[in-house]
Amino acid sequence: MKRQNPAKEKLNPKDIPAGVIGLGLMGHSIIACLLSAGHSVVGVTRSLTRHRGTRRHVLALLRQMKLEGLLKREPGALIGGLTLSEDYRDLARCGIVIESIIEDIETKKQAYRAVEDAVPADTIIGSNTSSIPLSLLQAGAAHPERFVGIHWDEPAHVTRFMEIIAGEKTRPDYAQRVKALAALWGKEPSLLRRDVRGFITNRVSYAMFREACHLVDSGIATVEDVDRSLRNDVGWWITFAGPFRYMDLMGVEAYYRVMKDLLPELSTSPEIPPLMRSVVETGGHGISNDRGFYRYTPAQSKRWEKLFLKFNYEIRRLAMKYPEDAGNRTAARRKAK
User: Fold this and answer.
1) Do residues 144 and 237 both lie within one domain?
2) pLDDT in tens, 241-255
């Protein structure tokens, strides 16, 4: 039986089985988020042997959500809604399938072909790509109109972040349906009006990463000093306000004047910065192998991971106290909340 118009359907996650392709770090946290919202979930991977710990890992994430007050139901009951498989045909009942595999166009398209062979024509297919334009990914699909970019952030089960991207052939009502689902997932989604590489946060973030590397490569500052400055300045206000709200708060004219002099001095190089190249070409991956811009012992890497997860829960609690429309609310509305 064909589903209702996606834009008009009253959504209940319990009635919408979800699929997740890819059982890596992000796949685990996406599954935890979907289970916590009430979906049953089918997780598909090429090798269950390589992912024997998936169920245990997802259960640990759910237990942590319960401990932090983000989950009312018992984790043990929710984990029963997770099915793991190597067979795409097990996605047949899914109303939405989210792909979260490596950033390679052909690999992703192979997965999409397998998904399209398995699911109904109106099942939403979402891609967690962080940089590839969705229009490239939906090209050649049997039903490109139901492809939607769904850009999560790690840890996906904790953050409020989500970007929803419509490709050239995406039907608007499917994007709106994902936006409605995102609210049920505990997200505060942004909807991109046009498909561009990198979307919003990556375009802004990578401009910052490039300038950070440029400052170190130019001998102006050390890695530690750049981190310290950004952490104690941008990190101080960014949870409260985005860049436009912040410039309003500080005074737009001041930024106008600084931009005229500063922008010509910023790096616009299209090349990978030497600092970044030297880290990667000597085998540095980050804390996953104890070598990145900093060096770590295995114990330090594990401690940083635990601290980062703890920080995410704490920063979420702070952010929830100051929603994006906090300054527009009346005293009565604030009290009602």
Assistant:
1) no
2) 999 999 999 999 999
